[in-house]
Amino acid sequence: MQVIATAGHVDHGKSTLIRALTGIEPDRWAEEKRRGLTIDLGFAWTRLPSGRSVSFVDVPGHERFLGNMLAGLGPAPIVLFVVAADEGWREQSDDHRDAVAALGIDRGIIALTRADLAPERVGETTAQVRDELAGTGLADAPIVPVSAVTGDGLPELRAAIGELLADLPAPAAEAPVRMWLDRAFTASGAGAVVTGTLAAGTIHREDRLELLGADEDREVVVRSLQSRGGAVDQIGPTSRVAVNLRGVDADRVGRGDALLTPGAFHRSDLLDVRAMTGADFADAPEEIVVHVGTAAVPARVRPLGAAHARLSLARPLPLMVGDRVVLRGSGEHPVRTGALVLDVDPPRLDRRGDGARRAETLTQMGPTGDVTLEVARRRAVRAADLARFGIVIPEPPPAQVRRVGEWLVDGAALDGWTSALRDTVAAHARQHPLAPGLPAKAAQDALALPDPILLDAVVRASGLEQRDGRIRDPKTVQGMGAAESAIATLEKRLRAEPFAAPEADDLAALKLGPKEIAAAARQGRLLRLDDGVVLLPTAPALAMRELAALPQPFTTSQARQALGTTRRVAIPLLEHLDGRGWTRRLDGTTREVVR
Questions:
Q1: pLDDT digit string (tens) for 263-276?
Q2: pTM of the full predicted structure?
Q3: Fewer CB within 10 Å, N or C, the chain?
Q4: Cα distance between residue 16 and residue 595, in whole Å
């Protein structure tokens, strides 16, 4: 299916043409039928001779209902622009053309209605339409004279629509769902039903979606789906769809709300945009209305040069880089311009000159965003966040962008973090010579890294090593500082008597506390056993030489005597040998050497 929205001056026969094409009355309200004037959006559908289905969103043409017109045109990818052959181009034709141009719609057909009333004017009106649409996306659109009353031209119009649809690229069925809602009502026995144009993605029964409203977000469940008057289990783009929801009342839903794939879209109330129709933001009013999808939201404008501006929206919307919005003011030409969304997560502009610098940056930005610029500004950003912003991430990323797990890191930032980490580790080693290295948490805080996973990448890039939560330079020979002399004295004593572990008083006399003993153990100069026993690292091998000469098995007392030591030293040493698998405990009193 495809969806086509109408456009054109009031009373030029848009609704009459849709009724003739589909057999469905698009005007839903009694007042519309009484006055013969379309006030709100109407909906109809038909099957073309090619077998392809098409839905129509019929929009009002009167200037008083321009907001409703934009809500119908906004989500639609194709326009059926209607101009009456007997009247030609009129005032609201201008407004609707400007809206089509502002939205960047470049696929459509022009229907010259009421051709039966003025066949002699068809050529003149055709030339007028070509002139008025010059420079827009519809400049070369096919023009089909038609009469909804006599039926003349209807087969040609259906054929032209079929040819246009056949040339369209396949819509993105696997994309996240973002369906702007245009209607909500309560169905008897079913509850809340919302309708809209599904431009991308696929909705299934029982899907869990997010409903973004003007006042709150909530999770909803798809109870059932309908399209073209029939129930379906799933529906893809581009389609008109009615969604029966669990989890919300219809009176809590309004036009401009949106159904979203959970977590797929960033909500933004601050946008940087580029004018797309030659408008100059220098003379923009301070307050405007931003139309996107079916939403209409007041906004404040801060010009950033002539072609760019920052919009502060009255409420957040699920927007992405590359979206088109219509900026609507008041006065003679209510559609001021269309704008391309360049950034949905822009930086603050607090310092003098920030505005001018930002304007220069925006001038460099492309319509799908610039990964290099975005990553450089943030130093590091999750790839999923950029995707939620709508920024296209090429594979492989640009040379200046490094992937670190789920993160994208700016190369210059990584170089800066690497240099800073080396300096920080070196300074810590000078200040704390006995420490095993800089704690990882202290490194992360010093570098202001947004995620601990990035520290691993910085450590690797810096040539440092991380072990047991500490970062050190493997090329640095760690000494004992002021404790060096005491450690050397203790080593000398233990070389003379390997199993004569020093008592606590001995260590205190040497001014060796737990910190100094731990540092010496990390450097491989001492061996710490349970119960505060300190020996040389060679002690286990020397002990095995003596224990292997004993009759097997042997008791703890026999081992103590063979080693010439005390029970305080023998028991922790034997347990250490057990743990290394060099000796094996047989029962509560005996052990043996493992051969």
A1: 999 999 999 999 98
A2: 0.78
A3: C
A4: 101
